[in-house]
């Protein structure tokens, strides 16, 4: 009886749980949702459906047709060459890592779905274990899925047609055939190719040659000529190589005929047009961009002339003044002989403009001026208040013409400032667009407007409120959306929120001033004696909220003024 109950439940059929209590390896796979028995079609069936008992000791309990078996149900689809392989070529003991399962005869358990669990690692650990990154299930060769552009060495030009084995040689490693794919030297062409120049030309081969063909020369503009000790600057960069070097196709002689040439010895290649009158140091005056383009000639002592250079003039290029020959005389009696009148006659009197030196000096650029605030106070527009701290360009730079202007700017506020109140403010409060009626030069925010001149004089807290608070509608970006002055309503509810709703409304209007004053929100004018419930006795000492603050249906305190509770029993038990 003890043996029977290992498989049978007393009075019941054989249960799957009894089977799995012994066949733990199957139970483990099913828990991991792996293998044939974890397939939904198989898992839903009882074990005895396929594995029946009591047919004798020689009865084969595990039977299926290997030719018609659907291997997809195991969770591992057979693809490519795997479809043609005999089952036992894969399901063999040498491919099973678990020693206990390996001892079982003709078992189909214990296999891993990783390539290297069945196949030998040809690369001997040199490449990732995921073979399918490069190989397909059809065959190990050719390798169709590998993209050489993903490697550090991208195949270009002739390299794309070279057989892999030309670079990846097949050798013997650890007694087995081995082909190296990583750790190859490819930083320089000479790692694979013989140097035909015998190491006589410095630099990288790619500076002159391409991967399409060694005979294609691209060295002009690419070759780092500074490696030779002769830097190519200016026009030398665009000169054809064979203009200086002897043309030859011999790799051991090409570009090697002027190795010892000094880059400062210009007359070795160029004829001296000055016939040695200024020495052989051509670079003292000339630049390599062009013989006509001269340097600043800092070596020249200008003080021996009638016009010694001072201040900003010492930094000016010679050709800025000496447009013709250096020996051509220049009239330097006035600045305007060389400099254009930037102000276009703004300061002219009787048709004659003053010389630049009246406001400018050669010690600093034209952007600096000797015209001071003190000089400005003598002009037709003395600076006051905030105008003194305003930068000059704010008033004198014409944004449309993008230039400085000084004449005919005007001296009224609206000549520079926009009247933002136009169309909103009554003419009598701002006659002739005169901003000074309300504003001063200290700050726009300092308003000296007398509100008693209006129909609504300011009292109490209203005297402390900014004009913008009532008269301007301001956006979240602090921009004026609209303005109201004469159209601004005077009733309290037009500016203040009516927290009482319709409680104290008369004919639909709540007049706040019946209870409140402008000094504070405290209802100083409210008289409880005029209500239907005058306060007497102890009621005078009770805090308002004891009676008027109640909890609503949500338990939130709310204030109710008209309680309609006039009998003692309404409040007292």
Automatic annotation (TrEMBL):
Source species, domain of life: Bacteria
Keywords assigned: Signal
CDD domains, A to Z: Cytochrom_C3
GO molecular function per UniProt: oxidoreductase activity
Protein name: Cytochrome c family protein
Organism (species): Aequorivita antarctica
